[in-house]
UniProtKB/TrEMBL annotation:
InterPro entries: DinG/Rad3-like (IPR045028), Helic_SF1/SF2_ATP-bd_DinG/Rad3 (IPR014013), Helicase-like_DEXD_c2 (IPR006554), P-loop_NTPase (IPR027417), RAD3-like_helicase_DEAD (IPR010614). The lineage of its organism: Eukaryota, Metazoa, Ecdysozoa, Nematoda, Chromadorea. This is Helicase ATP-binding domain-containing protein. One of its GO terms (biological process) is positive regulation of mitotic recombination. The keyword Magnesium does not apply. GO terms for cellular component: nucleus. It comes from Gongylonema pulchrum. Gene3D superfamilies: P-loop containing nucleotide triphosphate hydrolases. Pfam families: DEAD_2. SMART domains: DEXDc2.
Amino acid sequence: MEVYFPYDYIYPEQIFYMAELKKSLDAKASFVVFYEKGHCLLEMPSGTGKTVSLLSLVVAYMLRYPDRLDKLVYCSRTIPEIEKCVEELRNLFKYYEQLDGKPPSLFAVALSARKNLCINDSVSSLRQGSLVDGACQRYVLFVVRMFTACFRKLDCMGGLEIIGEQLNYVDFYG
């Protein structure tokens, strides 16, 4: 399996890390007892390229064996770590594009707490996570109720077309 690594130099620790990770992914596919059906715990010191190593190997594995691995869930405690992961993934995709003429056909989503992503000023200004969560849920519930009330007034699918025209939305099945 060819693994693209987007930097000029790769450290021996990174190669070892990727080799152990691949053993774990292969174990998930073949149920090797030693690796406990694909579970893996790897540790590397700070600043040793864990993120790029993980992403390089997992993206290559997903492209080579899409039937064995179809998603990666990358969790972190801090926003800067998630941002770093997204940036490393962008760099890796650009590297694929340089070598293959196109980026990998994979989909990535970065998620965070409501308090970090909320774009409603009155809600995000609350700052505290539990307050933001509560206000967000109340606001979303209000919007859903408004939408439901409007939707109930429609007597047929033609009503959706009219609303779509008024809002300048393109209907998909029109």
